[in-house]
Design brief:
Layout lengths: L1 H14 L4 E14 L5 E4 L4 E23 L2 E22 L2 E24 L2 E17 L7 E3 L4 E13 L2 E10 L7 E3 L2 E3 L6 E10 L1
Length: 209
């Protein structure tokens, strides 16, 4: 995936010499979804289960550049992204069942590089995306055995369609991830994840300068 991102970036710069170029700002909302049986932790005395409950709408905002040539275009973007996920934590201890709700917030710099085709005002596109971790906050850190160990970067892919109307750039895209969701979760020194990758639907409005 890194090589693909690098290759598309080289293609973008090589096309600058003879392509039509534009830059602009864009932002929007995204919805995260995950289907998983949750995470179970059993230390012999107590049992802990973490379930993905739902996710609030995330936000993304940043800059894009586009170069068009031969009916195609390459569009890299740099977007600040935030997401909030709600978890249900169930603790089984000494015959008691205690259930609590917690949330985590994630902040990242997203670097998608899309390649697309355009016919009139309509566009189709797809390409890789890198997520560079910036920071996070979590209610789960109230548990002494819980720690977060984020990777510096994770990778995924996007595919979508859009419309160019005057200086407006309207887009709807689907995003998949190449790593299992929750792989930052570490309990008592043991790493866990939800066993499935999360997906997102992104709605974006851009403005060409």
């Amino acid at each position: 995936m890194r090589k693909l991102l690098f290759s598309l970036t080289l293609l973008f710069y090589s096309a600058l010499s003879y392509g039509q170029f534009e830059v602009g700002i864009k932002g929007g909302l995204n919805s995260l979804d995950l289907i998983s049986d949750g995470i179970e932790v059993n230390n012999g005395l107590n049992k802990l289960k973490i379930d993905f409950r739902d996710a609030s709408y995330g936000h993304h905002l940043g800059l894009y550049a586009r170069v068009s040539f031969l009916g195609l275009y390459v569009e890299p973007s740099a977007l600040f992204n935030s997401n909030r996920v709600n978890y249900q934590l169930t603790e089984y201890s000494e015959g008691q069942v205690i259930t609590k709700l917690f949330n985590e917030k994630y902040y990242s710099l997203d670097l998608p590089v899309m390649v697309g085709i355009k016919a009139g005002i309509f566009r189709l596109y797809g390409g890789p995306v890198a997520h560079l971790h910036i920071s996070s906050t979590s209610d789960l850190t109230n548990f002494s055995s819980y720690h977060q160990k984020f990777k510096d970067a994770s990778y995924g892919y996007q595919a979508g369609f859009g419309f160019d109307i005057w200086k407006l750039r309207l887009d709807v895209a689907y995003e998949g991830n190449l790593t299992a969701f929750g792989d930052h979760i570490n309990i008592d020194g043991q790493s866990y994840n939800f066993g499935q990758s999360a997906s997102r639907v992104l709605g974006t409005v851009g403005y060409k300068f």
